[in-house]
Design brief:
About 55% of the residues lie in helices and about 15% in strands. The protein is of the alpha/beta class.
């Protein structure tokens, strides 16, 4: 019996050491492929003339639009608010000199894709960023406490799920024909595990992750990269967060994520979020799913936002 226990402890030690070195190797791989070598500019230049970004007038979407314009792409902005589209288009054109095409579309509607397809005709699309997304109100909250539950369910499925599949269907055929292209699908870190208080949102983002990885398996051999990005805290109007150690500005996150497009079919987009994901996976669900923890978390979010709203800008 003692020999069996000793062998078991030895095997456990070997297994633990192996996991540790595996995580170190993953971090080293991340650094090698991003910070130390990165993605050559010729990679992006070879993809095509136009980058299409949905939800592109704020936050990550706007940051991707600016960054791809700086890297030599003409930009198609797709969002629902005409005034914001015109404003962002003018900003990008003046800052980068690139062509910008603005397409107004409300992704809560299902009849918009013929209009979008018409506006994309004749464009050599090298990049598609499926970024448009929505959170429930109030945020965070329990499922039945969402404002207008039935409408929120329909709208969130349309925006967070249907848009990804439909926009991919529009861009992918020509990419396949040219045997080149990059599709970035923006999921969320909360899709990594069951996430109470965001259960509908996180579930919709799981679709993005599974759809992306399945499409990459189907079309990766055709010269196309389809990657799911799963960020945690990003400072934006949607999240209501401010930049910090873990929370990245949209601009910083976008630059970091583009350094990691060769990392595989799924990535958290920056080293901070990769480390955070590893830590969160180690916390037992019975702790973070307990009512007491959830209530304290909601109070913390409300207090934080209250301070931000009272802070002069």
């Amino acid at each position: 019996m003692e020999i069996l226990l000793e062998d078991a402890f030895v095997l456990f030690g070997i297994f633990t050491t192996f996991i540790f070195f595996l995580k170190v190797a993953q971090c080293l791989r991340y650094l090698v492929l991003t910070k130390w070598f990165g993605v050559p500019s010729s990679f992006f230049n070879s993809l095509g003339e136009w980058a299409v970004i949905t939800g592109s007038t704020d936050g990550i979407g706007k940051a991707y639009a600016f960054e791809f314009a700086k890297r030599g792409f003409n930009i198609v902005l797709i969002s629902r608010t005409k005034d914001k589209l015109i404003k962002v288009a003018d900003e990008i054109e003046h800052a980068t000199g690139r062509k910008v095409k603005a397409v107004q579309a409300n992704f809560t509607k299902r009849d918009i894709y013929e209009h979008i397809e018409e506006n994309l005709k004749g464009l050599e699309i090298g990049v598609l960023v499926n970024n448009v997304g929505m959170l429930q109100i109030p945020n965070p909250c329990r499922f039945l406490e969402m404002t207008d539950v039935d409408k929120t369910i329909d709208d969130m499925i349309a925006v967070n799920m249907v848009s990804v599949a439909k926009m991919t269907r529009l861009a992918l055929p020509k990419m396949k024909q040219r045997r080149k292209g990059l599709i970035l699908n923006i999921s969320s870190g909360v899709a990594s595990s069951p996430t109470p208080l965001y259960c509908l949102y996180s579930s919709s983002k799981i679709f993005v992750e599974r759809f992306s990885r399945g499409c990459q398996a189907e079309y990766g051999s055709k010269g196309i990269i389809i990657q799911c990005l799963m960020p945690y805290g990003i400072a934006s109007k949607l999240s209501g967060l401010e930049p910090g150690v873990v929370t990245r500005s949209a601009e910083d996150y976008v630059r970091s994520s583009l350094d990691g497009v060769l990392l595989g079919d799924r990535c958290h987009g920056c080293l901070n979020h990769e480390i955070l994901a590893f830590i969160l996976r180690k916390i037992p669900h019975w702790i973070i799913h307990a009512d007491k923890f959830l209530n304290k978390f909601m109070d913390h979010v409300m207090n934080t936002r209250g301070r931000q709203n009272n802070h002069p800008h």
